[in-house]
Specification:
Two copies of one chain form a homodimer. Helix content of chain A is 28%, strand content 27%. Chain A is an alpha+beta fold and 234 residues long. In chain A, a hairpin with a 7-residue loop joins strand 9 and strand 10. The N and C termini of chain A lie far apart (46 Å). Chain B binds a DNA duplex (30 and 30 nucleotides) through helix 5.
DNA sequence: ATATTAAATGTACTTTTTACACTTATTTTT
DNA sequence: AAAAATAAGTGTAAAAAGTACATTTAATAT
């Protein structure tokens, strides 16, 4: 097979920024790195890309190895390529961000990897440029959530409106008026009211809702405009 | 220097989707490829990444070689990594999209590269996955233009409101009411009215405007919501 | 002088967004 | 059994934004 001559070849990796939501705050799934350099330090979940594997496939492989989950929301974030980002050898990293229902994960935990959830506001130092990746992923998540009903990916199948509001408030680091929030959410027609209530979080109990998946798929690109103050969003 | 063992290394390239606007329609800058395979066919402008160069730098180098321009609007689009996207040897491509003022370019044309502007609607077939890249770049441009005043990057320093409207109409492939369009544009306070008029395109002449660069820099992330019909966007 | 061309401009109506407070269902306490 | 506590659920009026729509104006060409 002919080859391009005289060009340098580089290592290429995929790293995943995995977000979860426990009902109260946004969390990040991290692992203790298993190889040198920086062995034992906290890191995003990643892997070198294999010969016959594209990025999506690589990201899904990593995600599946780590959490056992399939069909997770996954989106390419950015390619990071500073020559010295890995001190051992130049490595290109294509970063993906993933949104998962933390409860599903907990059931399928794979403990071989020493993975752990950290609240996004008190995550440990990360290796290489991983903190920069997380920063960018947070911005992207906010940006996207302002227009698309993406945050449902972080919630369990059944959830309440107050939980959803909590999530939005966490992401945008603000508070919404609950009457206006509820009206806006209902106007999307994405929610299907259930008969039962969540009694864990209040005496009165809050009705559960499910996502209308048909509408969700059809309207994903419709705009919600859930921005508290546009100036705060990247 | 220690190295990661047993990992395959890959070629990494940067490709640029370069948009220009000639006052009437959106155009794409393409080159005739100078090396095998597919030599002589039309292609995006690209290059393998060099050892000590990051992606931004590579993209700027390419852009500068080709157009002589510096300080061009440049944004990472996506990393493309299908194993067989280049039939000779697996090559990762990090694609950037650039917005340039076509008039500035024409002055600095570098003819060594056989570059040519094509109307986006009648561009030739492109090599590899470059058409897919262009598609994605068009979507991204629309998406971004719906919220950010990004299209000014395509215009010369002095431009008229009808020209600007033309550009928006081209990008979104629709028509706007000119009273409403003008009001919306003026409401951004990004335009500074000039004393002189453009007499080329009408008998009456249309006032020139300049971009208020301070405000532009400060308000870039504010939202314009220039969407004709949200459903049509990505 | 008249016709032609594209630019510039205003207003009324509809929709969306915002601000704001009380009632309800249920559990806990006395 | 009554009272207190808690968070859920709901409506309305005012402001802002968006939409639809037609005439006048400046300059050139005939």
């Amino acid at each position: 097979m002919p080859k391009y001559q005289k060009q340098t070849r580089f290592l290429v990796a995929v790293d995943c920024i995995i977000f979860g939501f426990d009902g109260t705050e946004l969390k990040l799934l991290l692992v203790q790195r298993g190889l040198e350099p920086e062995k034992g330090k906290w890191s995003l979940i990643g892997s070198f890309i294999r010969e016959e594997e594209d990025f999506e496939k690589g990201a899904n492989r990593i995600l599946n190895d780590m959490t056992g989950l399939e069909g997770v929301y996954l989106e390419q974030l950015h390619a990071f390529g500073k020559p010295d980002r890995d001190p051992i050898e130049r490595t290109i990293s294509v970063a993906y961000f993933a949104l998962i229902d933390i409860h599903q994960y907990e059931r399928q935990l794979n403990d071989d990897f020493h993975a752990e959830w950290f609240p996004i506001k008190s995550a440990p130092r990360l290796i290489f440029d991983h903190e920069q990746m997380v920063e960018m992923a947070k911005k992207r998540l906010r940006y996207k959530a302002a227009f698309h009903p993406i945050l449902f990916e972080l919630l369990p199948e059944k959830f309440t409106v107050p939980q959803l509001q909590n999530l939005y408030e966490g992401i945008f680091d603000t508070v919404f008026d609950k009457r206006n929030f509820s009206r806006k959410i209902q106007s999307t027609k994405l929610l299907i009211k259930q008969k039962d209530k969540d009694k864990e979080n209040s005496k009165k109990g809050a009705y559960y809702y499910k996502l209308d998946k048909r509408r969700y798929a059809a309207n994903f690109h419709a705009f919600l405009n859930f921005i508290p103050n546009p100036d705060n969003i990247k």
